[in-house]
Amino acid sequence: MKKVWTLLMGIGLAAMLTMPAMAAELRARIKTVNADQNTITVTSRQQDQDITVNADTKYLNPDGNALADGIKSGDLKAGTRVTITYDTKDGKNVASQIQIRKPGQRRQGAQGNAQK
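Above: the chain sequence. Below: its structure as tokens.
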């Protein structure tokens, strides 16, 4: 029985080590865009975070269509609400996708203060 348990633990550990990292998602407002440095600073939950972008980063409008000018798009400006999908690589948050949120779009499951 001990050998079976050890074998199962080894398989589980191997599976965890070979799984790709799960991307994180961040909902925030753009604070600054620096196309020359390939960074976007955003504010989420009253904290600023620097996001690095690269040639693989996808930039999408609220409908999911690509922004032609990427990081240089005029739509990516201070105050714009975005959802960023990113991975942490070498201590930096590197965006794989930045999508502009629709005006008034709330978190999934968020509801107003309706009275009963």
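Residues 109-116 have pLDDT under 50 and may be disordered.
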